[in-house]
Amino acid sequence: MNVKEFSSRVGISPHTVRYYEKIGLLRDVHRLANGHRDFSEKDISWIGFVQRLKDTGMPLEQIHRYADLRAEGASTLRERHDLLERHASALEQSLAEQQRHLDRLREKIALYRAAMDGRETRLT
């Protein structure tokens, strides 16, 4: 599939697709005889994983490191595992912190609800 079809399927712009190829996140993209890119289902799967890492807050530098390790093959399994473990741990900590913030917001909302219902409450 060409860049336009690929970008539509993965939900990123053609510009971003080209950028990812330029910086090495998309590697070994097949080219047709006319030089046009011909993306595969494997490329879709890979970019889906890259997007997931990005959506979970992994910095592009770390994603690129993961891509480099992936390109090196099976000898980097431990390092890829460890990189993902560290990211998962950081994500768990972030989620826990966000949950604490959400809990405090819900408490404040409950105070406002009580005040609006005419129940006495102390708002700060």
UniProtKB/TrEMBL annotation:
Pfam families: MerR_1. GO terms for molecular function: DNA binding; DNA-binding transcription factor activity. Residues 1-69 form the HTH merR-type domain. InterPro entries: DNA-bd_dom_put_sf, MerR-type_HTH_dom, MerR_fam. Signal peptide: none annotated. Transmembrane segments: none annotated. It comes from the Bacteria. Keywords: Coiled coil, DNA-binding. Residues 74-115 form a coiled coil. CDD domains: HTH_YyaN. Gene3D superfamilies: 1.10.1660.10. This is MerR family transcriptional regulator. It comes from Marilutibacter maris.
